[in-house]
UniProtKB/TrEMBL annotation:
Signal peptide: none annotated. One of its GO terms (molecular function) is phosphatase activity. SUPFAM superfamilies: HAD-like. The keyword Endoplasmic reticulum does not apply. Gene3D superfamilies: HAD superfamily/HAD-like (3.40.50.1000). This is Uncharacterized protein. The lineage of its organism: Bacteria, Pseudomonadati, Bacteroidota, Bacteroidia, Bacteroidales. PANTHER family: GLYCERALDEHYDE 3-PHOSPHATE PHOSPHATASE, N-ACYLNEURAMINATE-9-PHOSPHATASE.
Amino acid sequence: MIEGYIFDYGGTIDTAGCHWGIKIWHTYQQLKLPITEQQYRKAYVYAEQTLGKTPIIQPNFTFRRTLEEKIKLQFQYLQRQGIIAETGFAFAKNYTNIVEKIYADTAETTQQSKKELLKLRNKYPLVLVSNFYGNISVVLQEFNLDGIFSKIIESAVVKIRKPNPRIYQLGIEALQLPAQNVAVVGDSYEKDIVPAHTIGCKTVWIKGESWQNNEPEQGVADRIITSLKELNT
């Protein structure tokens, strides 16, 4: 019997299961930027690795500011490769358009998620477990999600990153429930579903567009959903 929930944040609450790399790529496509998916993927990986190694994202950064830094790093990579122009109006316009569109889409999805989280919170305690940069509390406030989760466990703070199951163990301890009575909801099979399953939790895979094409149909996930609404039906 489920008595409490642990939620992932990025890709789960803010994009309804779509991997962030794919989310940004679709925006590049919609704005018709002259780059290939292979070129984009290299830029995305470069930006994420840079953010992982360098303390660019500060604890007071909003999601908008975080997004700006991500796109800026991607553009820097594409500039160095000679794929997009380094200067000029087109650069500034494309950069601004990408940030604005992604932010608007994310805000809308997050508000839809908020409605479902509030319904769940009336029945169950909720904990957030996220690989994030140290500013998740600011991001939650930005989208009016603060107060929904009884505990926030953030990788940059606890110094444990998914897929290490220990970060989910901290979530179980925060709920003070047996693992088998806790459901973990996440978009990543490798980083959410597998480690949560390993320590005995029930798992709910919110399955959208993945960064990789080799994920299983269901694997060890106990349930697959495409929207958080399904948790309340």
